[in-house]
Amino acid sequence: MAAYVYEGMFILDSNRYGKDPSGVAGKIDALVEKLGGEILVSRMWAEQRLAYPINGQRRGTYWLTYFRLDSLKMDEMNYACNINDDMLRYLFIKHDPRIVDMLVAHAEGHEFAGDDDSDDSSSDDTETEDEEASSEEETVESAD
């Protein structure tokens, strides 16, 4: 069947991740590869306090993964994640092929080549707008 690119966000048990970071995170990559998929990006996103306890855990390690996998294998992926004790929660999103390159580049920490926005131009516009607003205020004050 068709292989799609998925984004997987996993909340991992921070205690287990702290004891064996490469082992816990490696299970995600190994699972995708075992199902015939390809890992595009796999990295830690954050470690923070959870909004509410999950399985008695108050902290979680958020792991972000982009992978290519046959859509028929997603049921097996869901089942494997359900029975994995290292994963507190997980979420999969199937992405449109047109935005995959941009998402993967962003996850790797690179700027996407199609990105034409620059921070310098937006700051120049803001300064110009501020100057125009202050000159309008002066005009209004002098009319009184």
Automatic annotation (TrEMBL):
Show the CDD domains listed in the entry: bS6 (cd00473)
Gene3D superfamilies, A to Z:
3.30.70.60
Disordered: annotated span:
110-144
Q: Which domain of life is it from?
A: Bacteria
Pfam families, from UniProt? Ribosomal_S6
Residue spans with biased composition (Acidic residues)?
114-144
Q: Name one GO biological process term.
A: translation
Alphabetically ordered keywords of this record:
Ribonucleoprotein, Ribosomal protein, RNA-binding, rRNA-binding
**What Gene Ontology terms describe where this protein resides (cellular component)?**
ribonucleoprotein complex; ribosome
Q: What does this protein do?
A: Binds together with bS18 to 16S ribosomal RNA.
Which family is annotated? Belongs to the bacterial ribosomal protein bS6 family.
Protein name per its UniProtKB record: Small ribosomal subunit protein bS6
